[in-house]
Write a structure and sequence with these properties.
By secondary structure, the protein is mostly helical. The protein has one domain: Up-down Bundle (Four Helix Bundle (Hemerythrin (Met), subunit A)), CATH 1.20.120.450. The chain is about 50% helix and about 0% strand. It is flat and about 50 Å long.
Amino acid sequence: MQRMSDEPARWTQATVYPDMWTDPDDDPRNSAGPSPDGELATLQDFLTNYRITLRMKCDGLDADQLAHRSSPPSTMSLLGLVRHLAEVERDWRNWITDGDPLPKLYGKRDADFDGAVAEQAVVDAAYVDLEREQTATDAALAEHPDLSKRVGKDKIAVRELMVHRIEEYARHCGHADLLRERIDGRVGQ
């Protein structure tokens, strides 16, 4: 059990706004120019920014820190979130297809979090898995640019899949905020 004196001090790299992760000019999520035109481009932009946010929350941490669990009985960790989102990306492809579902990446239920151990090989593999699954799901959805098109066995609308993906990343980026602050005290949006 952590004592109060063992808790990290809150800090940020931002100098402009003390509650931000980084200064606006250094934020990779900020783009020059107007926001995207159209619903699909807007949804893709939000998804991209949440994906970047997750990576930012993990940046600069070693395998022990990434695998650090929130607090019992939770098995949640930043590494677990990376693995979970790789698993979820794969699962979304199962919603798109009419064929047999792809197998789970990490095996049994909750293996994405349970297997998030403090080994650099596990960290490296998690990032490779996430990138591969994001790319594959993006490619599968790119075949369906009509957001109202219904796909897969359950005939789910592409729009619903896109919004659900954004919601999943947004929710887990909120978890990542808290996990990161607990690890080293870094705060920010």
